Amino acid sequence: MTKLPGTQGLILEEPLLWEKGDKGRIGFSLPENDVGHFPLDSDLCGETPDLPDLSELEVIRHYTRLSQWNFGVDSGMYPLGSCTMKYNPKTNERQASLKGFQAAHPLLPDPLCQGGLRLIHELERLLTEITGMDAVSLQPAAGAHGELAGMLIMHAYHRKKGTKPTKIIIPDTAHGTNPASAALCGFKPVTVSSNTEGILDTNDVAALMDEDTAGIMITNPNTLGLFEKNLPDIAKIVHDRGGLVYCDGANLNALLGVVKLGEIGVDILHLNLHKTFSTPHGGGGPGSGPIAVLKHLEPFLPIPRVVNNESYSLQENFPDSIGRLLTFNGHFGILVRAYSYILSLGSELPRVTEYAVLNANYLKERLRKILHLAYDQPCLHECVFSDKEQHAFGVSSLDMAKRLIDYGFHPPTVYFPLVVPGAIMIEPTETESKEDLDLFITAFEIIAREAKTNPQLLHEAPHNTKVRRLDETTAARKPCLCG
Ligand SMILES: *Cc1c(COP(=O)(O)O)cnc(C)c1O
């Protein structure tokens, strides 16, 4: 097997903690007890928990070994389409762990957390400038939560106007969370198909946009990594017929400093700070999905809002607000990282987009020689292929994705977006160097050759990992957490 920087190396076996250690072994030494023994009420104690007895070294080795079975962006390229698994500068982590930020209690009275409130207020202002929107709330806890906030705002807007539309238009290239968020607010999603170029056609939207439709929910760039260039015309039709335009801007690293969505017809927008703005993500950790609106929708934003009136304070007196979305005011540590990221890049911010788009187009042009390119268009931050060419040898996207693991890369997104059968959706991100992109391409070239000469090898991949092919459905639905 060709050697690439991958998982071929020392893979340490490690049993469960319960199988290690020995009775009476301890990981710490306390001073001699000089207090007499007092038996506790056994009803209070219950049964002694079954905890293993281990030394300090056994515990350290156990967890260090387990940590090496994981893969993260700090150990290798993670080109998971639609997820922006990019490298996040460690300086932003450092700012987020500053004592004053990290230790601030969420119930501190306003006068005692002026710095934190000011950071929220300034980050809101920076995000309005970046997006071309007028007002922002940092409260939503994730992208999908931002979508929910946006749908609630759309609902509140129509109610205030005295209309009660029941439908919302959603393209077939939207992110999967979009129809779910719309449905949670009681809107019936109506699908509009993308055209042969992979984007929305103005006439197709015009044919669906009627008085019973609240508006459109459009992912831009869409999940094919393509820019919805008809958005201004589509927005005009939606507005003329009384609707609003919602934009899913989770992948803003494709547009940062280049396109201001608020200037091309978008009324409501959400961002993912944990994709674009320097918070590592994955594994269900905390996120942040700020919601941005144009002026006429500002009264509907969630409360409390940070107001600057000589000093900063949290205010709740906004009668048209959709209300509170979280117990506290957003995931503050993530806001600190985003603020630090934006300020540290400053006027260089558009470079993020330039590199993200350049890297994706470079990969697209090199990989199209071995993989079927779904839409032959210049892409933005990601590109979508399929396994059409490899089907002839009985090799699927899943086989190729699994084989990539042997060569040291996290697999790209597969079988999404749904409009491309056998999709392979690659987002290299702006932080990968040309050398690393070339290594990834080399791995894919080797895999494409293996698909022809030795398909069995791919069917059985990965070969070099701790575990081989898992039953992914059962693993997700019935996780076995007790060993
Ligand atoms: C990631 C993503 C979302 C969902 O974000 P979460 O924080 O996972 O809820 C929504 N839309 C798009 C386009 C995304 O890429």
CATH class of the largest domain: Alpha Beta
Trace the largest sheet across and list its strands. Answer: 1-7-6-5-4-2-3
Number of strands: 13
Largest sheet: number of strands, sense, barrel closure: 7 strands, mixed
Q: What is the CATH topology assignment of the largest domain?
A: Aspartate Aminotransferase, domain 2
Describe this structure as you would to a colleague.
Strands 1-7-6-5-4-2-3 form a 7-stranded mixed β-sheet, sandwiched between helices. A 4-stranded antiparallel β-sheet has the order 10-11-13-12, covered by helices on one side. Strands 8-9 form a two-stranded antiparallel ribbon. The model has no long low-confidence stretch (mean pLDDT 93). α3 (90-96) crosses α11 (332-345) and α5 (114-131) packs across α11. The chain is α/β, with parallel strands linked by helices. It has 2 domains: 93-347, Aspartate Aminotransferase, domain 2 (3-Layer(aba) Sandwich); 350-466, Aspartate Aminotransferase, domain 1 (Alpha-Beta Complex), CATH 3.90.1150. The chain has helices at residues 42-45, 56-68, 90-96, 99-102, 114-131, 143-161, 177-184, 202-208, 231-240, 273-276, 332-345, 349-367, 388-391, 397-406, 434-453, 455-459, 472-477, and strands at 135-137, 167-171, 188-192, 213-219, 244-249, 268-271, 291-293, 305-309, 311-315, 372-373, 383-386, 413-414, 423-426. Pyridoxal-5'-phosphate binds next to α6.
Write a concise keyword list for the protein shown above.
483 residues; alpha/beta; Aspartate Aminotransferase, domain 2; Aspartate Aminotransferase, domain 1; 2 domains; 7-stranded mixed beta sheet; 4-stranded antiparallel beta sheet; 13 strands; globular; binds pyridoxal-5'-phosphate
